[in-house]
Amino acid sequence: MSSYAKKQVLLDVPLESQFTEPALGNGCEVTSLSMLLSYYGYETSKNQLAQQLNYVPVFNADGTHGDPNEGFVGDISGGDWAMGVYVPPIASLAQTIVKTDYHTLPKTDATINDIKKALQQGKPVWASVTLDFQVPTDTDFVTWQTNNGQVKVTPLNHACVVTGYDNDNIYVNDPYGEKNRPVAIKDFEAIFTSMGGQMLTLEKS
């Protein structure tokens, strides 16, 4: 039987909460990255990663918005003045931690099958999702003009570590503090796709 035929996988990824003091109210992405790195034995923390992450302002001087593909937009510590960060800066940050032991593999426009394949190989997946795993509608997104062109963003922006799946659910470590939280596959697929299919795995160099 090929490994692709696995009906279920569940990896034991250490849980971290973004609200553990010192809390990062908007720190879901770095908290999820910290969980991913912990799985591979790296000793780091959400706050250490937050210090090393690249940042961009919500508004630039010329009236354009910061680009979440360049850095975290706004205030990671908390409040509404933030729009999160997309996978490229998270991948760059991860690479500085793993150095030459692994190479980071960020993807956009990925599919749920890409996630399943990684899990079957024993690799947890950092993924861009939505707050409380609600399926977003078109009205939840706005288009920002950045220095790099138009970027679609949403205040529902969230991140997690995908730890497993079975016939019905995808399982995630939610940085809001829930380990192996079940999300219906159909819902997760809609959420993941709407957020641009952004995922990150570590690959052995």
UniProtKB/TrEMBL annotation:
It holds the Pfam family Peptidase_C39_2. It comes from the Bacteria. Residues 11-176 form the Peptidase C39-like domain. CDD domains: Peptidase_C39A. This is Peptidase C39-like domain-containing protein. It comes from Enterococcus hirae.
